[in-house]
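Technical annex B. To support the medicinal chemistry partners, we prepared a structural model of the target in complex with zinc ion, based solely on the information shown next.
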Amino acid sequence: MNLIFLGAPGAGKGTQAEIVSEKFNIPAVSTGNIIREAMKNGTEMGTKAQEFVQKGELVPDEVVIGIIKERLAESDCANGFILDGFPRTIPQAEALIEMGVKIDKVIDIEVPDEKIAERMSGRRVCPQCGASYHIEYKKPKKEGICNSCGSELIIRKDDKPEVVLDRLNVYHTQTEPLISFYKEKGILVEIEGQEEVADTTALTLKALGGNA
Ligand SMILES: [Zn+2]
């Protein structure tokens, strides 16, 4: 079963991808991770990617696609895989087709922007030891103070609502066309992200049930 997981940053797509990966015993291939791996292993495409990273430039599509191609050719992908974080744009989706990669289902985890901004603005991190908290879901023992080292917790710049909403806008501009693209192909499954991770998982697994 070859899957793509779509979803806004903060919608919980990565978590769902991990759970499905374990349940169906297929690897979750996250673009960020495989690029780092390819560079570390010095594969042909990894070496190319390294050149861009060293210059502080974005790794171009053709190199990312080359790395994905290398990764999907590995034996653990024989029974299927989950692409997490790719494609993000129509040209990337088209490149996948050109590569001959057949996709069975595209799972789109939908969470309203306000909800995501609200969740993320509740995050707190410890600048000293890196421990992370949430004012609702993972409260520190003492408000605003790190359990492990006693430092004062901070809000990361990336978690501030205005920054989160900005990133969400970019996501929508780039990815909304992708949703219609896969809808037209009849392989899009829209999952409404729930308050509890387990409830979202139940919906996701149900949607994939036919292929279990
Ligand atoms: Zn700490």
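Notes passed to the chemistry partners:
Strands lie at 2-7, 28-30, 81-84, 105-110, 123-125, 132-134, 188-192.
The domain at 2-26+79-111+168-211 is CATH 3.40.50.300 (Rossmann fold).
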